[in-house]
Every structure is written in structure tokens, then in C-alpha cells.
Amino acid sequence: MSDHSDKQPLAELLALAGSGASPVQLALIVLGAALATFVFAKLAVFTANSIRMARGLAKIPSAPGGIPLLGHVIPMITCVRRNKGAWDIMEEWMDATGPIVKYNILGTQGVVVRDPTAMKRVFQTGYKMYEKDLELSYRPFLPILGTGLVTSDGALWQKQRMLMGPALRVEVLDDIIRIAKKAVDRLCEKLQPHAGSGQPVNIEEEFRLLTLQVIGEAVLSLGPEECDRVFPQLYLPVMNEANHRVLRPYRMYLPTPEWFRFRSRMAKLNSFLIDLFRRRWQARQSAGSKPKPADILDRIMEAIEESGAKWDSALEQQLCYEVKTFLLAGHETSAAMLTWSTFELARNTEATSKVVAEADVAFGPGGEREASRRAVDEMLYTLAVLKEALRKYSVVPVVTRKLAEDDPVGLLGHPLPRGIMIACHLQGTHRLYESPEEFRPDRFMPDGEYDQFDDAIRAYMFLPFIQGPRNCLGQHLALLEARVVLSLLQRRFAFTLAPGSAPAHGHGHGSLPAVSAATVANGLDLRHPTVIPVGPIGGLNVLLESRS
Ligand code: HEM
């Protein structure tokens, strides 16, 4: 017996489609129906989620300038024409509306905050539910950084952090002073012919090469020549392409010649690193006694041995992600900090002479002595200059998180619904100081403005490295390296800002034209509007004179 209800769905469809349809037409009908159901289901889920989130955010003031459907996308993409970053627009929203503002970008709903108590919730007390936003901000970097520390979450991140954390502790920091001193001595030799020549030098480019050499030696014991050979050819171009993809995400998918070059460089870089890991691992296994760790890689390998993990291709791949993460996280940010510090010192002779005096004490009047860790720790004023540069210029102006579950406590008295984005506006927090546009290193000297903040919020008033369990693993390394480099360079040369001109060599930070550094009253106008870490547009041209 066979009635209508016994028919298979396909048979029903055949009957519906009529006997005249060809198999290809029928297949297309089935495919079309499946696709329509899929799109409909997606739309229904998206709409339900959007309504749920919009209800959850109802009491939070909205950013000005939003329009139906597109939301706040137009101010975000047109701001570059006004030489402002998306983060500057967010700051204008908060100036106009208050310390927490909601926004909507093409259906992605979120809030932006700058208040230190909100930062404490996101970075410390609620950090597990405020997850990394890997879908948007970090997406272009995922092919490079994979599941490395910066771009992983949950149990894998925790395991990796436990493994990597100790590798960047005390003894490595002692090595950094020696490595940074050699690197700055080499840079001084390179710059010497420019002294008194009237020839501008793009010091930002030099800092980028220097910090890459330092991290290359600290992590992998690579010599400066090897760093200069491998990284500018393989590593820097892939990072450049990833940076382009932030504003032009279609570049991730279009098989252009650059797309193929990106893939091939990545493959070469990975095989260079994996080859190095294998040689190092084999040498360790065949050595009779445990060798003294020479670098960060040795320390990571030591931790792997102690954990009993098996050496296999998955571990090699993970190590590759971690090392590329250190290279990325560890050089451009530090270079930007050094560049802004140099910019400010070139305009402030009093601050410069204090930095030079500290170099004399730590390294001897000719800068010839090896300084101890303690001597560098005592360079309080140089440290204050670096911190003030990080505050004023906020080289990482914003970090984003995605809320994994409803947060009943929420931010600034507003409970928040799961799924929304949170833009933690570090630059906004750094402007909550007195006369924030002024460069005043004394803020970070003992009993200065920073020390005067209330105990409950102080740590969340200075966030260049964020705070909490996911804070920057390299912050001590970065500040130690920078104290050595900045003070010795200032000891050797007097810097002035070159009259505005394109950088002497190298292309600087992105492709926008250079602004005249010498004529700009406040360096904030020089900040690049699209590239993080934020450096000066077109680099920083300086003139040098030797100090006696
Ligand atoms: C001035 C220099 C630096 C600045 C301003 C800086 C800033 C930051 C910030 C803001 C984060 C948090 C990112 C986020 O949560 O989305 C971070 C994370 C990180 N940084 Fe740095 N960084 C600097 C130098 C370094 C150096 C020298 C290293 C390595 C040697 C390093 C390694 C890392 C790592 C591994 C993380 C991820 C930590 C985790 O998620 O567990 N950073 N950094």
C-alpha cells in the first residue's frame, strides 16, 4: 500500500516539481531550497540575537551619528580623511556622551568604555567571560599567529601561558641588558656618519630594526646579520600584508599575486623556524648534561621537557606560533614607544639632560660599562619618560573583547548581554590625567600624579600593557630594553627634529605622507590613524649631533 504520507521527501519534491523537470533542474531546486532554509535560519538567529542584545543595551546611551542598518560604520571609515583613527572617533563619542557608549557596526553591537573600574571588570574580575575577539580585530593575524598566546583563549591559552610565562622571567631580563647594550652600540656606530651632516635619519625605522634584533637574539640567539637577513625578507612583509588586511579584509580571500607571495613567505618562515627548533631539540637530547639556557627558546624547551610533553609536529607548529607571537608583540610596540620618547626628548632639553645623567651613572660617562640589573632599575626618570610616552601616545589605543555569557554585574552599573563586543579604550583612560596632552614624565616619578590615584583604581589608570591574567608578558623586558637603548642613544647624540620631509630611508609607518615634525606643536597630530601600534605618520626624521 502506498499513500501520499509514505512518500520520501525527494519523491514529494519530484511530484511537486512536475514530471517535466530534468535531473539537473531538480538538483538545483533541492539545492535552492536547502540554501533558502539555511539563509532563513541564519537570519532568524541573527535577528533574535540582535533584538536580545539591543534590549540588553537599551539603557546605555548610544553613540551619535548612527543610521538604520549601517549603524556607525560611516564615521568609522571616513575618519581617516580627517586624519583620525577609529579610536579617536570612539573617544569623541565618550566625550560627548559619557564613559560608556553603545555602538552598532553593520549589526555588530558593542560598547566602548574608558573608566578604570570598567577596565578592572574586563581585565581582572570578569576576565574569563570577556574573551578575546578573534573574529574581527585579530582575524588578519591568525594565519601568522595561529593559536599563539595573544590569539588563543580558554584552556589552551592557560596551558601555554603557564609554559611560556617562566621563560620571560628574571634571568632572561638580565640577558636583555647585555643584548640591548650591544644593539644600541651597533646603532650608534651606524648613526655616527650622520652626526653633524644635516642628513635626516628616520629613527623609527632604526628602532624597528633594533628591537627586532634584540628580540631575535633574546628568543632565538640569532645574530644581528641573521636577523637583518631573515626578518626583512620573510617576517616583515607578512606582517605588512596582515596590517593591510585589517582595513581591507577582502585581501584575505582574493588570490592576487600578493596573496600567493604571503603564503610562500609564510611557508619559508615556518620552515626556517621549525628547522631551527629541530636542530636545537636534537642537540639538547644528545647532550649529556642539561645545558645552561642560552635564550628564551631554551627556557621554553626546558619547560616542555619538564611537562613531559611529546615532541611532535603539533608541538612544533605551536612553538612556531609562539615564537612569531613574541617577534610581533615584542618589536613594533617597543619601537613605537622609543620613537615617541625620542620625539618628546628632542623638544625638551631639561628632560634629556636627566636621561643622559642616568646613563652616565648606570653605564659610566663614556657609556662603556656593562650596567647591572639594579643600576638599570634605578633609572627612574628614563622609565618615567617611557611611561609618559606610552600614556600620551597610547601605542595600543584600544583592545577588544567579546562577552561570552551574560554579565549581571556588567560595566558601570549596566548589566550586559552575551555576544556583544567591548572596546576597552586605553587611550581614553590615559586622557583622564591632568592636562593629558602635555608630556610630563614627573607624573610617573615617586609621589607624582600616578601615585596620587586611589589604590582601588591606580593600576587601571595606566594600561599600555593592560592588566590582569592576560596582561603583556613582555612588559618588563620591553621597559628594560628601552631604558638601555633610549638613555645610551641620548648619551651619545643630541637629537633635533628635522624640518618636515619624507623619511630619509625606509617607508615609515604606512603609506601616508610625512607631516612636518618640527613644526607640529603637539605630537598627537602626528599619530598614524590606521596602524596599531601607533607611530608617527611617515616615520620620524631627526638630525643628530655627537655629544662630547
Ligand atoms: C612597549 C611595548 C609593548 C606594549 C605597549 C605591549 C602591549 C600589549 C598589550 C596591550 C597586550 C594585550 C593585548 C590584548 O589583550 O588584546 C599585550 C599582550 C602580550 N604581549 Fe605585549 N606589549 C609590548 C611589548 C611586548 C614584548 C617585548 C613582548 C615579548 C617579548 C610581548 C609579548 C606579549 C604577549 C605574549 C602577550 C599576550 C599575553 C596573553 O594574552 O597571555 N609584548 N601586549
Automatic annotation (TrEMBL):
InterPro entries reported for this sequence: Cyt_P450, Cyt_P450_E_grp-I, Cyt_P450_sf, Cytochrome_P450_Monoox
Cofactors required: heme
Record field: transmembrane: 24-45
Matches recorded under SUPFAM superfamilies: Cytochrome P450 (SSF48264)
Keywords from the UniProt entry: Heme, Iron, Membrane, Metal-binding, Monooxygenase, Oxidoreductase, Transmembrane, Transmembrane helix
GO molecular function: heme binding; iron ion binding; monooxygenase activity; oxidoreductase activity, acting on paired donors, with incorporation or reduction of molecular oxygen
Positions annotated to bind heme: 472
Pfam family, one: p450
Family: Belongs to the cytochrome P450 family.
Name assigned to this protein: Cytochrome P450
